[in-house]
Amino acid sequence: MNLKQLSQLLGLSQTTVSRALNGYPEVNEATRERVLQAVKETGYRPNKAAQRLATGKAGSIGLVMPTAPGHQSDVHFGEFLAGLGEEAVRHDFHFVIMPADPDDEVAALRRLAISGNVDALFVAYMRGHDPRLAMLKSLSMPYVVHGRSFGSEPDYPYLDIDNEGAFYDATRLLLQLGHTRFALMNGPMHLDFAIRRKNGVISALAERGLTLEEGCMSHALMTDEQGLLAMEHFLQLPERPTAILCSSTVLALGAIRAVNQAGLRLGEDISLIAHDDVLPLLKPESFSVPLTTTRSSLRAAGVRIAQRLIGTVKQAGPFPDQELWKTELIVRASTGPAPRP
Amino acid sequence: MNLKQLSQLLGLSQTTVSRALNGYPEVNEATRERVLQAVKETGYRPNKAAQRLATGKAGSIGLVMPTAPGHQSDVHFGEFLAGLGEEAVRHDFHFVIMPADPDDEVAALRRLAISGNVDALFVAYMRGHDPRLAMLKSLSMPYVVHGRSFGSEPDYPYLDIDNEGAFYDATRLLLQLGHTRFALMNGPMHLDFAIRRKNGVISALAERGLTLEEGCMSHALMTDEQGLLAMEHFLQLPERPTAILCSSTVLALGAIRAVNQAGLRLGEDISLIAHDDVLPLLKPESFSVPLTTTRSSLRAAGVRIAQRLIGTVKQAGPFPDQELWKTELIVRASTGPAPRP
DNA sequence: TACATAATTGAAAGCGCTTTGGATGTCGCT
DNA sequence: AGCGACATCCAAAGCGCTTTCAATTATGTA
């Protein structure tokens, strides 16, 4: 069933039917009713590809999903997607997901944009000096970046959380508890959030004249295994750190396993603060020792970004170009006073 | 840059350029080279919407993502998507993801199909007597179902794992270890895999004249919290079960927390076998007591389904219509002989 | 040399929709 | 009766691509 057939069925022109469906005012209410009724009966749905071709809009937002045979799927990605989806479903938008090798992201993004299949782009996993920004700017297609790109002029639309502030505050808390030996368990070094979190830690330490030793920093994929390995390494250090900052509850999962295996007590021998993206699978309050965290919901960020993206496509009012969300510092049992030497 | 401009630039007709790009034989090799060269220089990419409109194909597979404000994102979904993506990227396919309220899945699937935006459909979260099957059959669009639908004639293309066999085998192992009091921690009752797994347990027990009490069965969302709750319930039973079968390592996570909190020892007081979808986040061998599991990689299933779907769209050879994968039973430390009463 | 055949290329139709630029009919007023 | 202002509706152009059908040129054969 297509427009032509439907309009013939109704004895109307395609023009009128199209207008009736798209809410144009210049169509008699009675005819509009008839059309809507016929649509219900026939189950007619406009062909999106044709709509897109005719209007240039198709109600879809595009994103690149990094993937490769060895590439681990990322819980954070799924959670974010759920947020995007939650908002998209309200506006009858859908996603076009282009899977791409992580090394090929710039090109993949470009293909996606030029394909004429999407109205707007969403970009995540931002890096320092991210090469995708220049490309995006040249594209004349709306986009929103999740995160920022350290070292690039912040003149692009983004939504980010205050990573530096979060880790600064967390570090201060641990300092107040008397800790002096710190370690940072971070995400991959090239990622923007990792850079900023590190800076937050360093600047809080600097205020007390402390520094973060090279050996007390790990940069790795945010999996529980990496957390385990990193923590094992920290625990073997001659000057064992007592305060651990951790970029994800996933990392914390492994880290805590290492702490337990070493016979140490979390919140007493070792204090740990992790960043909590509010993953449904990993609730900090459900850990055997509930985790002190800096919290910001990844899913909420997804919802918000979808709002901005869809709003822009639909030309629904202006949106702030840049948003920086504060995180919450939630104190639970994994932090305690520094142990006496 | 579109075809028309490109062809004018080259002094050729759109026809010839189009043919050159799509590998038709009736075009001079020299001209083809020229065209390809121009494409490289100009960065021309065909408009997918137009291609789709003209050919009816657009290199995309569609799927519905269940989502809603309260709806938890599902790790399993993300992992599966990674598998689909891994294969799709090899064929320059992409996904069209339509987010939809879980209650609205049939309609959403229908919309997606008629939208003319996708070449094939993928369907998951199968239920008993799933209403989507009839709809899919009426659609004349290729599709593959992940899982099966208990109670429906199995005359549709699917890829499933042998859930019944897996849980039958797991139960037998526990029986051989001397266990007599069983409990099953299952996924939502309406889902097909839950039905089959339950049947597997029941039939293995029946061979020994045992039954599964109503109170020894839980059907819930597969989150760690639900696992915790279910296990707490089991542990309070007057005839406490000693053998637990668990539909997911996520559930097991919570269940084990409950076991620990009750001061019981896993693998001694309580034996537990979980089904392992090979989630990168939750490795059974990394649990403090490594988990005995029935294993089948969700991601591998994603890859295979993408293969079949894309292969069918590309008319690349016939594929088996129905595949049933065996699971592996991997014995680790969470199972042991039944404790003496 | 003349003619069939193969190798290349193009013009134009069409995919299903939106939208511009009329056309037609109605109504209220002078 | 005559005229502008609305309210409705429609024909046809176009979005960017593929593909059928036909035209043109090059090649080989008798």
Automatic annotation (TrEMBL), chains A, B:
The keyword DNA-binding applies. CDD domains: HTH_LacI, PBP1_AglR-like. InterPro entries: HTH_LacI (IPR000843), Lambda_DNA-bd_dom_sf (IPR010982), Peripla_BP/Lac1_sug-bd_dom (IPR001761), Peripla_BP_I (IPR028082). SUPFAM superfamilies: lambda repressor-like DNA-binding domains, Periplasmic binding protein-like I. Keywords: DNA-binding, Transcription, Transcription regulation. This is Substrate-binding domain-containing protein. The lineage of its organism: Bacteria, Pseudomonadati, Pseudomonadota, Alphaproteobacteria, Hyphomicrobiales. It holds the Pfam family Peripla_BP_1. PANTHER family: HTH-TYPE TRANSCRIPTIONAL REGULATOR GALS (PTHR30146:SF109), LACI-RELATED TRANSCRIPTIONAL REPRESSOR (PTHR30146). GO terms for molecular function: DNA-binding transcription factor activity; transcription cis-regulatory region binding. Residues 1-55 form the HTH lacI-type domain.
